[in-house]
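Two proteins follow. First one:
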Amino acid sequence: MTGDHSDLRVPTSELGRFAKALQESVDSLAEARSALSHLRADQIGTASLDAACDGFQESWSYGAEQLGERITRIQGAVAQSHNEYVELNAAIASALRAVKVDG
């Protein structure tokens, strides 16, 4: 191990961007589910195509909802990590300033 401690740095700006991207993906999934829910089978075409689309919409909607819930939980954890690292960095900077003033 070298004296370089750069491996201990956490890029809080990257965590913030990641949390935002996760939230945007949840929003996009919700919009897609909403758009599909407004589509009626009789608007699509043949009876077999209508039935296939209905089946796809039901399974896709359920899967997208489950995925959205999981992404939401991950997004919350990433956002919490971001906030806690920002607070930790502020506390470390404050402690270092106090040591410098006292020293």
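Second one, unrelated to the first:
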Amino acid sequence: MSRRLSFAPLAAAIGLGFSLIAGSLVAPTVARAEGEIRIAEQFGIVYLLLNVVRDQHLIEKYGKQEGIDIKVDWTQLSGGAAVNDALLSGSIDIAGAGVGPLLTIWDRTHGKQNVKAVASLGNFPYYLVSNNPKVKTIADFTEKDRIAVPAVGVSVQSRFLQYAAAKQWGDKEFNRLDKYTIAVPHPDATAALIAGGTELSGHFSNPPFQDQALANPNVHVVLNTYDLLGPNSPTVLFATEKFRNENPKTYKAFVEALTEAAQFAQNDKGAAADTYIRVTKAKIDRAALLKIIDNPQFEFSVTPKNTYPLAEFLYRVGAIKNKPDSWKDYFFQDAKPLQGS
């Protein structure tokens, strides 16, 4: 009989590094004047731009150029559902999550809070990995398997899995594999997959966790998101229209900070790796990390790429009710408009 899932000790044992700081999300707060911004990020290299912004105090730098002192609050969460709830409750101002959670909350708030994306965090392939040698494709998963995702049915990993299922079995079967998914933070899911011995046999991951898992000879790639959609921006930052409109200087400082961080990370991968280790305190070898982010398929950029196919798919299968005409419908168009897709 398989053992019950228990992930936290495993993560600690292999030193993946994992902290969940949610104390500031206990209760919503009222709207504030210019000069304060609360940002929620999740786990992985895909959030490296935020690590750079934090490490170099770039929001504060650009705030001073706007004539204000900005207080920045950082929070780490796991899963798009938790991030979306925090944004709608007023506990955070900037949400970091996948395109899946973005499209869910954009649809949910359409004509109300009007949540839209601020920018992309870059283009990265995400892997669905497994330690079950019988699982070569998504068609090989059975009721005996469990697939870890950050948030069931909402995370971009869940949406990618649905997209793949629709390609495999047709749109009517898009949620065919949902019953096998469970919500587990990336560090814990990686630890469990490497250790084995639990019901967890799959993990729809992101870097560096997917790379750490694949270092184990028992783990292999089942699905690569670049094979599904081509190069794409899986992770984005989003905010409410209210925050953007009522805090124009703070919002502008954030966008400028993010743009500088993207240029820094893309142009100096070594310094970007050092920043990631310093800010996240991740127990990862620098050379191994640099090898990951020096992948030519990685691009640190605020410009969204190839997000619309997923949006169109979610509308087509009824997962969202409002059909965006293009990616510009769910991204804010600022003074320096993004040239994305």
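SUMMARY FIELD: The CA atoms of residues 131 and 219 lie 4 Å apart. Strands lie at 36-41, 71-76, 94-98, 116-120, 127-130, 146-149, 181-183, 200-204, 220-224, 235-239.
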